[in-house]
């Protein structure tokens, strides 16, 4: 049983049960459509699919909240820059008193080929600074995540330059399919446990 992490909040708004879907990335035009921002692209896809506009600013992020198939959904893009993503996630978790089993974090992964996605329920950050920050602020490695492959840079290219660069023309279709597949996994999670979705999508 995943432990609940929250600071109890009382006020005029009824909190209720919320599922939180977070995509990691960096804010700003210069980072749009870069490899490191593929988590943001999944949130944009879900915003369109669920008809939940990302029109609110809070939790050091941009977010939208609405209902989809009977579930109350919060879509969140942290605007802290990647290295501080956990600050935004923790703030949303605290405010809405979210069980960690009702959280999924979506991010890029150098250890998977472009287009490949992998779902996990726990694990180390694996060198990803956004996940390092998330683990540090939640105090646990046990939370659902969707990793989207971006592959590794060619010899001679630094990792920072690579992840902050854009996909090659020949990768764009595969990358777009991975975004849609990740959004589909999130949609499936609204109807069944994450473990079942993980077993289905990791095959």
Name its key features.
203 residues, alpha/beta, Rossmann fold, 7-stranded mixed sheet, 6 helices, disordered N terminus
What does this structure look like?
Strand 2 (56-58) and strand 3 form a beta hairpin. The protein is an alpha/beta fold and 203 residues long. The model is unreliable at 1-14 (pLDDT under 50). It has helices at residues 38-50, 85-96, 129-138, 159-163, 172-189, 194-201; strands at residues 19-23, 56-58, 61-68, 71-78, 103-109, 117-120, 144-149. It has a single domain, classed as Rossmann fold. Helix 1 (38-50) packs across helix 5 and helix 2 (85-96) packs parallel to helix 3 (129-138). The chain is built from 6 helices and 7 strands; from the N terminus they run E-H-E-E-E-H-E-E-H-E-H-H-H. Belongs to the PTH family. The record marks 108 as: Stabilizes the basic form of H active site to accept a proton. Keywords: Cytoplasm, Hydrolase, RNA-binding, tRNA-binding. The active site is at 36 (proton acceptor).
């Amino acid at each position: 049983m995943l432990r609940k992490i929250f600071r109890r909040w009382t006020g005029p708004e009824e909190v209720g049960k919320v599922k939180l879907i977070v995509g990691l990335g960096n804010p700003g035009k210069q980072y749009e459509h870069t490899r490191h921002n593929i988590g943001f692209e999944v949130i944009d896809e879900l915003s369109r699919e669920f008809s939940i506009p990302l029109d609110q600013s809070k939790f050091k992020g941009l977010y939208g909240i609405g209902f989809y198939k009977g579930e109350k959904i919060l879509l969140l893009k942290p605007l802290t820059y990647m290295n501080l993503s956990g600050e935004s996630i923790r703030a949303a978790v605290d405010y809405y008193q979210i069980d960690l089993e009702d959280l999924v974090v979506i991010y890029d992964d150098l250890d998977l080929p472009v287009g490949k996605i992998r779902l996990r329920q726990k694990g180390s950050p694996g060198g990803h600074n956004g996940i390092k920050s998330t683990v540090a602020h939640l105090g646990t490695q046990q939370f659902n995540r969707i990793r989207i492959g971006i592959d590794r840079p060619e010899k001679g290219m630094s990792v920072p330059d690579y992840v902050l660069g854009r996909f090659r023309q020949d990768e764009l279709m595969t990358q777009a399919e991975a975004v849609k597949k990740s959004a589909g996994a999130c949609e499936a999670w609204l109807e069944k446990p994450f473990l079942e979705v993980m077993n289905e999508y990791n095959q």
